[in-house]
Amino acid sequence: MTRAVVVGAGIVGLTTGLALRRAGIEVVICERAPEIRAAGASLGLWANALAVLDGLGVGERVRRIGAWSEMYFHDSAGRLLNTPEFGPEDRRYLLVQRAGLNDLLADAVGRDTIRLATGFTAYEEHMDHVTVHLSDGSSEDTDVLVGADGTYSAVRAQLVPGTEAREHPGHHAWRAVVRAPGVTVPEDRVILGTHGCRGGYVRTHDGGVFWLVNQFNSPPLHGSPKQQAMERAVHLDEGGRDGTLAGLIATTPDELILHNQVNSVTVTRRRGTARSPARRSSAP
Ligand SMILES: Cc1cc2nc3c(=O)[nH]c(=O)nc-3n(C[C@H](O)[C@H](O)[C@H](O)COP(=O)(O)OP(=O)(O)OC[C@H]3O[C@@H](n4cnc5c(N)ncnc54)[C@H](O)[C@@H]3O)c2cc1C
User: What is the percent of the chain with per-residue pLDDT over 90, rounded to a whole number?
Assistant: First the structure.
């Protein structure tokens, strides 16, 4: 039986693991963290993602933990932007909580296939297999190694050196899910504002609201994440006519507000034939 080791139990690793298992491949997923968890708040799943999840037999379960929404773009004065290139199906998406989706995928792939608290450290390629070295000193021999270990992927770093994630200068995101918002949110809204800002708010399936503020070419940051988000919300609500986004941010407890510097990874293709790379010095 073909065997695969997937590094990382995020959305990509769990989905890949499920697809491999359904194809009859024996799978081991190695996750560095001591538990299945998800960084971030909510995630929008469009038709293409849902089609993949349907194909893996979990689409209906995912729909049950999500809320449908439609994405229409407004400007900072509240005017609806004309976007004829998007049809009704392009606008429709399912909003799910990242943690809930990862839990569902972990159950679907089988918890017994996931090795928690087991980080990838290095791999060695042989003629007919790959040896994967892990942080607990053990190793796994496999036919296929899948690097699904996120932006700072150690698998990618070994496979294609020089492709480390770099800060996308001045690009930041602030977001939160508010369970009991205390602010009336009559509709979902995505706003393309001024000063490189965009953001908005979407109602979740359980009566909460997910809000997001994003800025390109941000000036240096000052103050708390809440103050930073509030400053940028001004550029999404010209003249303060709406007030919904600012109201949501104001009522969000500070500890629930996630701020991230957005990073980027240069897309690089591996050239030439596979060769056995040297073991990294940090390998056990
Ligand atoms: C602000 C923002 C909003 C976004 N909104 C959307 C959206 O609405 N819809 C959408 O489709 N996408 C969205 N994205 C993109 C989406 O979040 C990412 O594409 C997705 O989370 C990537 O998942 P992943 O599984 O590759 O990585 P991750 O979720 O980062 O998972 C990687 C996993 O690998 C583990 N790991 C790391 N290193 C090791 C190691 N050495 N050994 C073992 N395990 C390791 C980590 O602990 C983690 O569990 C958004 C991104 C941002 C920044």
Answer: 81
Task: Report pTM.
Answer: 0.86
The pLDDT value given to residue 180 = 84
Going from the Cα of 40 to the center of ligand 1, the distance in angstroms, rounded, reads 9
Fold of 43-97+167-264: D-Amino Acid Oxidase; Chain A, domain 2 (3.30.9)
At 11, phi and psi to the nearest 5?
-60, -45
Rounded CA separation 59/192 (Å): 31
Is residue 165 within 6 Å of ligand 1 at its C-beta? no
Yes or no: say if 197 and 243 are a contact pair by the CB < 8 Å rule.
Answer: no
Domain topology for 1-35+116-165+265-284: FAD/NAD(P)-binding domain (3.50.50)
147 in contact with ligand 1, CB cutoff 6 A: no
150 lines ligand 1 (CB under 6 A): yes
In degrees to the nearest 10, what's the CA dihedral of 113, 267, 276, 114?
Answer: -10
